[in-house]
Amino acid sequence: MVSLSRSILALSIVGMAAGNVFAAATDLMVADFDSGRKPNNIGGDFGCWIKDPGDPMQGCIESFDRGAKGNALRIIYSVDSDKPAFGGLWMRLQNLDAAKFGTLALRVKGDAGMGYTKIFKVELKDAMDVSSHYYVRGVTDQWQDITIPLKDFEGMANTRKLKELVLVIEDTTATAKRGVIYIDDVRFTKIGS
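Below the sequence we write its predicted structure tokens.
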């Protein structure tokens, strides 16, 4: 009887572990920022960029922000210029084959004290520099999960060979021209595929 109980217990543990492996296999974590350093989880570099580095009214700085559950990435930005202004974060995807995934997901929030835009653009670029984009709307000062079906991106980027993910804050769409947004847990998931 003891042997049977141990066998049932062992099978239960194996079953739970297999369930966790299956759940983990449905997501590909691109960047959780928990290491507090570069590169991202798949070996790609990342950083901030702006349209015109010579314009003192445009700027973008990234840094790690330590929270209760690990690090997030803080993006301090300004697109408050008389000239056309945009910038944000670029992240290398290492020619990732994302065709087996249904969505791009990330966590995002704005900084209530510093201000933040409620709208930003997400671009996916392939190895041929063809891009697709999607506008994220409704950012608040609370963490929220954003899930974007890959089929909802406008454009023709080849999801079988993704080179780069870009977050773009545009002067023409930003609800706050200066501010801070935080991102975390950038991942591709099979949900919605």
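The first strand starts at residue 27 and ends at 31.
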